[in-house]
Amino acid sequence: MEKDSSQKSMKGYYMTTFLIGLGFFTMGLMDPLYDTYIPVFLGKYIKSNAWIGTIMTLDNVFAIFLIPVFSALSDRTRTRIGRRMPFIITLLPLSAVAFGFIPFAALSSLILLIVLIFALNIFKQSVRGPVVALMPDIIPGDLRSEANGVINTMGGIASIVGTIGLARFMSVSINLPNRGPTQDILAFPIASILIFIAVILLFFFVKENNKGSFEKSDEEKVPIIDSLKEIFSEKEKSALFVLLSLLFWFIGYQGVLPFVGKYSIEILKTSSANAALAAGMVGIAYALFAIPSGVIAHKRGRKKTIRTALIALFTVLMLIFIHSNVATGENIGQTTRMISFWALMFLFGMFWVTIITNSFPMLWQMADYSNMGIYTGLYYFFSQLASIISPPITGALIDIFGYGSLFVYAAVCMLIAFFLMSKVHRGEVSDAVTA
User: Fold this and answer.
1) What residues contact residue 187 under an 8 Å CB cut-off, 6+ apart?
2) Is 276 helix (H, G, I), strand (E, B) or coil?
3) CA–CA gap between residue 219 and residue 199 (Å, rounded)
4) Which of 98, 269, 283, 395 could form a disulfide with 120 if both were Cys (CB 3.0 to 4.6 A apart)?
5) What secondary structure letter does DSSP report for 140?
């Protein structure tokens, strides 16, 4: 009976969750286009992949501080429109403006491009924590794997829109003053318009409660620093091992994704418009498997589901490594080469979304209403730390050993994460729900 009740309750939350997912839609729209084309823009000025990887991490230096700080600030914010919404309706539109101007900056100078990349990420990384923390504020703890599946479906749809839809506009020429017909621009400003629309819908259709049903009174609120100390000083280290695990799986992910666009153009010889299709395959997998992966984890357990996906990712990445050595030969046709690579990236996305869908709910299950944003911020602190660590390493690996080394590097990271997850003993649906 309890299971039936839970399923009925989730049906009542689906529409709300899809609307909350509009915030994540904006991130899913920007991130794949950013990862695919920023290295290409930088490559017009810089030849060293190691330097490109380093520059790609500079924005994450901001993120590693901004996401935890703004997540925690939103925990303690009280306004008439809620605690997350003030950040969302100010910082997301600013992100959209900066994002839309990036390709124009790339036409002007390297300095202007880097400055705009920094501005974008200051706004985008500041709002990311409040956007993500909005869902666990509203959705009960035992339904968050399914709800996070819905959220990730929205991100997957956004990725499809960006990489398969909007990326086609990168081959469309527009007339610019003093430049004439110019390509590699339109996807970014169009994405900005869609972000503005998503923010408007999110604001008008998602209403936060000023006082959550699980919220502590003002007198009971724990200071931010004390909350952080409490998390890391717990005798039971499940939260810490989840964070260490995600550090390694994000090191693997962030080592590969920033270079997939360049890999597609330079090694697989695809066009600029098709360079984003590899990331698009990941987005399609997100949209198709995010909700089912949450349902599977609800039945089989989050830890078991994540560890199975990590082993699957290790296997897929090794297959991509083999592909990079075999399918790039002269006797392999372009169509066969690309379709087989896209198929492997689809599998990558299927298992990756399984991990992302269920790892966040594991942490949220260990939190309560008063520190939900802090746990959200810690998740992003470790994931952004991976973004700082990994691209310079993988850029150097490409320069020394070639692109194939990317995939072996990422596979090893997934294997390390698999062993770290064995130390996690909390965060399941069956655990006591604290928020």
Assistant:
1) 33, 37, 103, 162, 166, 167, 168, 169, 170
2) coil
3) 33
4) 98
5) -
Answer positive or negative: Cα dihedral of 341, 344, 350, 351: negative
Domain extent for 301: 10-207+234-423
The DSSP string of 355-393 is HHHHHHHHHHHT--GGGHHHHHHHHHHHHHHHHHHHHHH
Q: At what angle do helices 85-108 and 49-75 cross, to 10 degrees?
A: 160
Average pLDDT of every residue of the chain: 82
Residue 107 domain flag: yes
Average pLDDT over residues 94-111: 93
Question: Six-digit token pair at 298?
Answer: 């609800």
Backbone angles phi, psi at 25, to 5 degrees: -55, -40
CB 373 within 8 A of CB 72: yes
- Evaluate whether residue 32 is within a structural domain: yes
d(CA 48, CA 117): 19
Tell whether 167 is covered by a domain: yes
Place of tokens 């409660």: 209
Lowest pLDDT segment from 155-159, 403-407, 426-430: 426-430
Here the tokens at position 420 are 């770290």
Q: Are 427 and 238 in contact (CB under 8 A)?
A: yes
Residue 144 forms part of a structural domain: yes
Q: For the chain, how many structural domains are there in total?
A: 1
Q: Whole-model pTM above 0.85?
A: no
